[in-house]
């Protein structure tokens, strides 16, 4: 059985296709791939889009520590769309899978990163035209006076057209305590566009779990159009330490043994304080470690080696006010 590419990017196997000595020329890619016969076989492992998706998933694994349930759901969505593509090649029609989503979790848990990788994956599988994410908040959608909200919302939808509209802290669109609030107008426009533009737009609603639950409960029409709910759990201390080491390595630094131990102690203390934002707080802490390292190196007043420049020590960690501040709830943690 010989293999050949078709216009959809699959590798086809057809009986009797081998002709010894024949010269093969690449056929022009058809706009509409032919419907396959009953005897044709599709090799999913040779699907060009499938390879692009695997690369995207590998990047997601490399970028994000933990989040096993989220990564599993992303792979399930990829498999669904890959099989849907295969069914279309055999003329097996079915309704277009709905890809509108809800991402719930605290700050710094990877929601924006997963949205970007999701857009790349959906684009590779032909579900959306562009691998882009347009991120908005309430202020980008809700107007200040009558007649202002619809143009703002439609402008945001136009910028996201063909890709993903990511609405962060989406629950702020709904303020039942204010009868004159224009957020409900945004929701009504979104409801219409999510249904009418399913072929060119994916909407992702994001925010804290409890507030998102109330948001969807108060807007059942919206909830019924969101097929995929992904929960982003807070990271454990061990996961955050691994995230810190990835971030440090990405910037061409490294912890020495004492610094690694010190940063673990920092995390234990910082996680117990207010306004902790998971990976975002880790990144901010590392930026301040670099500040303290720079000050320490300048004050050495001697020639510096490469090892000096790339090494973060326990002194750079223990300089944090987390280790000295007696009233952690009375001021912003640093």
List the helices and strands and how they pair.
Layout: E1 2-5, E2 11-14, E3 41-43, H1 48-63, H2 68-89, E4 101-105, H3 111-124, E5 133-136, H4 138-141, H5 149-160, E6 164-168, H6 183-196, E7 202-207, H7 209-218, H8 220-223, E8 228-232, H9 237-250, E9 254-255, H10 257-270, H11 279-300, H12 306-310, E10 311-312, H13 314-318
Parallel strand pairs: 4-7, 4-8, 5-6, 6-7, 9-10
Antiparallel strand pairs: 1-2, 2-3
Entry summary:
The protein has 334 residues and is of the alpha/beta class.
Explain what you see.
The protein is α/β, with parallel strands linked by helices and 334 residues long. It has 13 helices and ten strands. Strands 5-6-7-4-8 form a five-stranded parallel sheet, with helices on both faces. Helix 1 (48-63) runs antiparallel to helix 2 (68-89), helix 9 packs across helix 10 (257-270) and helix 9 packs across helix 11. It starts with a strand and ends in a 16-residue tail after the last helix.
The average pLDDT score comes to 87
- Percentage of β-strand residues: 5-15%
Q: Distance N terminus to C terminus? A: 65 Å
Record the strand order, biggest sheet.
5-6-7-4-8
CA-based gyration radius: 25 Å
Tally of individual helices: 13
- Write down the overall geometry: globular
Could you give a short account of the major beta sheet? 5 strands, parallel
H-E order: EEEHHEHEHHEHEHHEHEHHHEH
Question: Which properties best describe this structure?
Answer:
13 helices, three-stranded antiparallel sheet, 47% helix, five-stranded parallel sheet, globular, 334 residues, 12% strand, alpha/beta
């Amino acid at each position: 059985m010989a293999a050949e590419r078709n216009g959809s990017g699959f590798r086809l196997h057809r009986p009797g296709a081998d002709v010894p000595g024949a010269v093969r020329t690449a056929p022009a890619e058809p706009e509409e791939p032919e419907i396959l016969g009953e005897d044709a076989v599709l090799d999913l492992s040779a699907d060009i889009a499938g390879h692009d998706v695997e690369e995207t998933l590998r990047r997601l694994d490399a970028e994000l520590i933990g989040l096993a349930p989220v990564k599993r759901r992303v792979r399930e969505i990829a498999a669904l769309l890959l099989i849907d593509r295969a069914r279309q090649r055999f003329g097996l029609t079915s309704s277009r899978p709905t890809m509108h989503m809800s991402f719930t979790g605290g700050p710094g848990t990877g929601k924006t990163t997963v949205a970007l990788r999701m857009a790349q994956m959906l684009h590779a599988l032909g579900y959306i035209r562009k691998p882009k994410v347009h991120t908005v908040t309430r202020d980008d959608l809700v107007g200040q006076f009558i007649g202002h909200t619809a143009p703002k919302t439609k402008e945001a939808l136009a910028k996201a057209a063909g890709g993903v509209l990511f609405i962060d802290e989406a629950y702020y669109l709904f303020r039942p305590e204010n009868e004159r609030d224009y957020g409900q107008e945004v929701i009504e426009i979104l409801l219409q566009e999510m249904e009418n533009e399913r072929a060119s737009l994916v909407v992702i609603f994001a925010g804290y779990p409890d507030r998102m639950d109330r948001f969807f409960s108060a807007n059942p029409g919206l909830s019924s159009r969101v097929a995929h709910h992904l929960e982003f759990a807070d990271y454990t201390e061990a996961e955050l330490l691994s995230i810190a080491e990835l971030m440090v390595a990405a910037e061409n630094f490294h912890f020495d043994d004492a610094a690694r131990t010190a940063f673990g102690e920092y995390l234990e203390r910082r996680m117990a304080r207010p306004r902790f934002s998971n990976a975002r707080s880790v990144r901010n802490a590392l930026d301040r470690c670099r500040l303290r390292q720079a000050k320490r190196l300048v004050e050495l007043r001697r020639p510096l080696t490469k090892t000096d420049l790339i090494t973060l020590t326990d002194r750079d960690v223990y300089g944090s006010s987390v280790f000295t501040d007696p009233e952690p709830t009375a001021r912003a943690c640093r």
